[in-house]
Specification:
The chain is of the alpha+beta class and about 110 residues long.
Length: about 110
């Protein structure tokens, strides 16, 4: 029973998000943020993704956590942050190192 609570606690703790993603777009781009937990964005095409890594369970970003490198130059853009199964596995494996992962996705939308 102790093992069950330990595993359940680890999974629940890795689902908590303290991490931030800096949404950086060029001038003239129309940016909006997708609803949390949404799968994909209706009417939009995936443009790029970026996995972010954090220390201390999301408090300290390791590297650039901005969307600037995957952002298109113009048009309507939707940014979505999520934690997928691979991010959960990495977070559970890195739990004792206090590592946390999430993925930022950028979608382009037709007008």
């Amino acid at each position: 029973m102790k093992r069950f609570f330990l595993v359940a606690g680890l999974v629940a703790f890795t689902a908590l998000e303290c991490a931030t993603v800096n949404v950086t777009a060029p001038p003239g781009a129309q940016v909006r943020v997708a609803a949390k937990g949404a799968t994909g964005v209706a009417g939009c095409t995936l443009y790029g993704t970026k996995r972010n890594m954090y220390l201390l369970w999301g408090l300290v970003p390791l590297g650039d956590n901005s969307t600037q490198t995957i952002m298109p130059r113009s048009g309507e853009v939707v940014v979505q942050t999520q934690i997928n199964l691979f991010d959960v596995v990495l977070s559970v494996l890195g739990y004792w190192l206090t590592l946390y992962f999430n993925t930022a996705s950028v979608y382009t939308c037709s007008e």
